[in-house]
Amino acid sequence: MKHPLDKHEVQRLSIIMDYFEEAIKDIVQPSLRREGFSSVPDVTWACVGGLDSLKKELNRSIVRCIKYPEFYKKFGVNMQAGVLLFGPPGCGKTLIAKAVAHDAGANFIHIKGPEGLNKYVGESEAYIRRTFARARLNSPCILFFDEIDALTTKRGMEGAWVVERLLNQLLIELDGADQREGVYVIGATNRIDVIDDALLRPGRLGQKYFVPLPSANERHSILKALICSQRKPVSCTVDLDAFARRAECNNLSGADLASLGGRSSQGSFG
C-alpha cells in the first residue's frame, strides 16, 4: 500500500471468511506443534499399496472413531484398546500408522524404540508419563511405538531390569483408558515372540494385525504407489503387472520394491 486510503475506502474494508480459511492453512501453526513433538503426517492411503482388509479394520477401529465419536458413544462402543502391527520388516507398518493419522486428521507422535530407555532410575518411567501427557494435550492423537519389542521385552530375563520398570509404567498408562480419551496407541514390531504377554491382553494392545509380505497383486499396487508418490517418469513399455509377477519378486517386501524403484534410474529396474 504505497498510498494511504481515504475515508470512504477505509469504510468499505472488511474481513471475510476466506481470509481466515487461507490463514489457517499455512500461516498460523497450532501452539502444541511448535515444539516439534507432534505433527500430522503427509502420508496418505494412496502411498500404501495393497493391504485392503487391514485398511478397513484400522478405519473402523481408529479413523471413524476419531471422526465420528458421537456414534461410538451412542452405542456404548469403546475402541480405546491399542493396536499392534507385526510382521516381517519392510512391509509398511510405519507407513500404515502415518496414513491412519493423516486420514483421521489426528496428531502423530512417533516413539522410536529404544529412545525411551535410560540408565538412571526413574527416568524411563518419567519419559513414558511425559509422552502420554503430551499425547492427551494433543488429542485426538495417535501414539506410535516403533520397534516396541525394545521396550516391552518379557520380564524375568537377565539384564532386563531397566526395561521392566519402563514396561510396568507403560502397562499402567495403557490401563487408564478413561484417562487417555482421544489417545490411540499403535505398536509395530517384527519380534512379537519377545513381547511380554501382559501387554498383549485385551484392553492394552489386544488388537493384533499381521502385516504379511505382499502378494503379486499387492506388489503391483505398491509399485504403482511408489511411482505416483515419487513422480518418476516411466516409459509406456514398462509392464508393472508383469514385473510384479516375476519369480524374482516373490518374497520381496515393500522396502525391497522401493529399493528397486530407487535404482531404476541407474538401469537396475527390470
Model description:
- Keywords: ATP-binding, Nucleotide-binding.
- Pfam families: AAA.
- This is AAA+ ATPase domain-containing protein.
- Belongs to the AAA ATPase family.
- This protein is of the alpha/beta class.
- The protein has helices at 7-12, 17-26, 52-67, 69-74, 93-104, 123-137, 161-175, 216-230, 240-244, 254-262, and strands spanning 83-86, 107-112, 141-146, 183-189, 207-210.
- The protein has 2 domains: 37-210, P-loop containing nucleotide triphosphate hydrolases (Rossmann fold); 216-266.
- Helices cover 40% and strands 10% of the residues.
- A 5-stranded parallel beta sheet has the order 2-3-4-1-5.
- α8 (216-230) crosses α10.
- The N and C termini lie far apart (58 Å).
- The model is unreliable at 264-270 (pLDDT under 50).
Task: For the structure shown, list the relevant keywords.
alpha/beta, Rossmann fold, 5-stranded parallel beta sheet, 10 helices, 5 strands, disordered C terminus, AAA+ ATPase domain-containing protein, ATP binding, ATP hydrolysis activity, ATP-binding
Biggest beta sheet attributes: 5 strands, parallel
What is the spatial order of strands in the main beta sheet? 2-3-4-1-5
Shape: globular
Task: Supply Rg.
Answer: 23 Å
- The CATH class of the largest domain is Alpha Beta
Total number of beta strands: 5
Keywords: ATP-binding, Nucleotide-binding
InterPro entries: AAA+_ATPase, ATPase_AAA_core, ATPase_AAA_CS, CDC48c, P-loop_NTPase
Family: Belongs to the AAA ATPase family.
GO molecular function: ATP binding; ATP hydrolysis activity
